Amino acid sequence: MRKIILLFILFFSNHSYAEINVFSCEPEWTSLLTELVKTNVKVYTATTAKQDPHHIQARPSLIAKMRRADLIVCTGAGLEAGWLPVLLRRSANANVQQDMPGHFMAADYVQLLDKPAKLDRAAGDIHATGNPHIHTEPGNIRKIAISLAKRLGVIYPDNKHTFDKNLKIFLERWDKATVDWNKRSIKLNNMPVVTQHQGWRYLTNWLKLNEIAQLEPKPGIPPSTSHLMSVVTKLNNTPSRAILRAAYQSDKAANWLHNKTNVPIVILPYTVGGSEKAKDLFSLFDETLNLLEQVIHE
Ligand SMILES: [Zn+2]
Q1: Separation of 166 CA from ligand 1 center, angstroms?
Q2: How far is the CA of 36 from the centre of ligand 1 (A)?
Q3: 72-122: per-residue pLDDT in tens?
Q4: From 36, 120, 123, 165, which residue has the greatest number of CB atoms within 10 Å?
Q5: How much is the CA Rg of the chain, to the nearest whole Å?
């Protein structure tokens, strides 16, 4: 009798706790996971759209969440270099360590831009191995969705069929949306812009925006007055239509440049949650294009 009760408990506890338990480093991957898993998913997101993903504190609460995760989904390519290694070490969760199936780095599935010929961190460049802001291009999201669905199937083989089905639905919607975004992008081609940080390389590459200057002298190095003065000189020769700033970035340097040059500032959501309208990956791109189109119509 006791054996039967025990089996009964095991059967039901297995079912009620067969949750998908994922640790996501950034909101864009949480959004993608939600599309692929749909129900019964517990995703903890380490950062919000109002935080710089390069600079997060490896808080004990993050360590505790990683300890319990079956899978971690992060960007990689050095984006989380300042905090992810600490979380991995301190969480001591064998399932999510590098080279384990529970360790998914999105950047492994796309082609990195700004890849240096020679690795050099001496200048304090936080993009030393290539540009990690990969989610700002729909084609990258597509590739990562396919690889992530496959990985979810490895971690939770019982749900593989559901992930495959959800991936198919997602890709159909995504491809349709991408056709629309691509059509809209034509009007934006060659638009000269200044960016705060090299966080839009995939977006500007996709939309063929003309990125003429950055407010940071090097990725991760705060704007200095002398560098900003050189940007003003550049803008005098090549006028820019907009200063692009992510919702999480300080407004100081962008405001300074705006006051000097009168070039409008466009605050882009950057990721899901970066503005009220950017509620998922679809509305993130819709909203980003809307904001850029407004510059043209001004
Ligand atoms: Zn960066």
Answers
A1: 31
A2: 27
A3: 999 999 999 999 999 999 999 999 999 999 999 999 999 999 988 776 666
A4: 36
A5: 21
